[in-house]
From TrEMBL:
Protein name: Protein-methionine-sulfoxide reductase catalytic subunit MsrP
Oxidoreductase molybdopterin-binding domain residues: 111-269
Cofactor(s) demanded: Mo-molybdopterin
Post-translational changes noted in the entry: Predicted to be exported by the Tat system. The position of the signal peptide cleavage has not been experimentally proven.
Note describing how the cofactor binds: Binds 1 Mo-molybdopterin (Mo-MPT) cofactor per subunit.
Catalytic activity from the UniProt record: L-methionyl-[protein] + a quinone + H2O = L-methionyl-(S)-S-oxide-[protein] + a quinol; L-methionyl-[protein] + a quinone + H2O = L-methionyl-(R)-S-oxide-[protein] + a quinol
Domain of life: Bacteria
Length: 335
């Protein structure tokens, strides 16, 4: 077994248990002994090497095994350069843990993500509360490298590990009345300082939604990992949505509820500022945010001297795969 705590370290000395600080030496050894890592599975994901200062998030044993068996999806992956690990895991929007980009990493480290359950409800033949471990039984994980375009006009290229949302939704057998899917994030002010703040902008819990055909689209992913390991809490562990052709706020984190509905759900940002954020939130360079342009974006890493501003693509570059979903719709009206 490769990733093991040294037996002389009590679990209580490691907070939280799921985090492991990799030594550079260890990684070097790993690279040299690559065959060991693959344990006979030639096609498994190669592990990303991390710097000494970076923290690897391992998650529970059962998840580690699944992550190690993940395969890279070339069909669904971009070959653009990845955002550095410290950007993906250190520059986040997760208002439950604060409004600043470095708040989620600072305040989410003790967030408890195992055990975790998800309640399935609404227009569905198999409602119930399911343990995440059971949800993932029989599911093959894959790595998909997607662009993530935040509505704030920055973007990153991120190697997620997950599985298509469609495969999960089908297992619960939605009824003929199910036209939308609504997702809910955990509401737990004890663990989430942003939910205790009196200056809250959002009516907790955070809610998002998709039309059924969007939810069933093969690009729509449920992620449980990133950069080959488990999701860090700041990225929405243990289970988050990734909808790459929509603004980042649609990609709801730390999901505890999936509800099938007949009516279009009202998502958190739409409820908060309906003039600025709609239900669809498809990435669209020709419909500006009322307070800023959406025609370009800052591709991270970006700095004062090297801002790396690029043109924003319709549907974040996924138009050939998803534009059909919206044929005949006025995308200025349905922003
Ligand atoms: N529950 C919840 N989900 C959320 C958010 C949030 O504040 N709360 N922020 C969203 C926004 S605005 C973006 S851009 C992405 C950021 O995901 P990342 O931090 O993993 O890159 O998460 C989205 N999901
Ligand atoms: Mo965002």
């Amino acid at each position: 077994m490769l990733i093991r705590k040294a037996p002389d370290i009590a679990p209580s000395e490691i907070t939280p248990e799921s985090i492991y600080r990799q030594r550079r030496q260890f990684m070097k050894g790993l690279a040299a002994g690559g065959a060991l890592l693959m344990s006979g599975q030639a096609s498994a994901l190669a592990r990303y090497a991390l710097d000494e200062e970076q923290v690897r998030y391992l998650g529970p044993d059962w998840l580690q095994q699944k992550l190690r068996a993940a395969q890279k999806s070339s069909v669904f992956s971009t070959d653009e350069p990845l955002a550095p690990y410290e950007h993906v895991t250190g520059y986040n929007n997760f208002y439950e843990f604060g409004l600043g980009k470095d708040d989620p990493k600072a305040y989410a480290q003790n967030f408890k993500t195992d055990p975790w359950s998800v309640e399935i409800s609404g227009e569905v033949h198999k409602p119930g509360t399911y343990q995440l471990e059971d949800i993932l039984k029989g599911v093959d994980l894959e790595e998909r490298i997607y662009r993530l375009r935040c509505v704030e006009a920055w973007s990153m290229v991120i190697p997620w590990v997950g599985f298509p949302l469609a495969s999960l939704l089908k297992r619960f057998e939605p009824t003929g009345n199910a036209r939308y899917v609504e997702f809910t994030t955990l509401h737990d002010p004890k663990q989430m300082p942003g939910q205790r703040s009196r200056f809250g902008t959002i009516d907790w819990p955070y809610v998002e939604g998709l039309r059924m055909d969007e939810a069933m689209h093969p690009l729509t992913l449920l992620a449980v990992g990133v950069y080959g390991d488990a999701l860090p809490p700041q990225n929405g562990a243990p289970l988050r949505l990734v909808v790459p052709w929509k603004y980042g706020f649609k990609s709801i984190k730390s999901i505890v509820g999936i509800r099938f509905t007949e009516q279009m759900p009202v998502n958190s940002w739409q409820r908060t500022a309906p003039r600025e954020y709609g239900f669809y939130a498809n990435v669209n360079p020709s419909v500006n945010h009322p307070r800023w342009s959406q025609s370009t974006e800052r591709r991270l890493p970006s700095s004062l001297f090297s801002p790396n501003i690029i043109d924003t693509q319709p549907f974040n570059g996924y138009a050939d795969q998803v534009a059909d979903l919206y044929s005949g719709m006025d995308l200025r009206k349905w922003y």
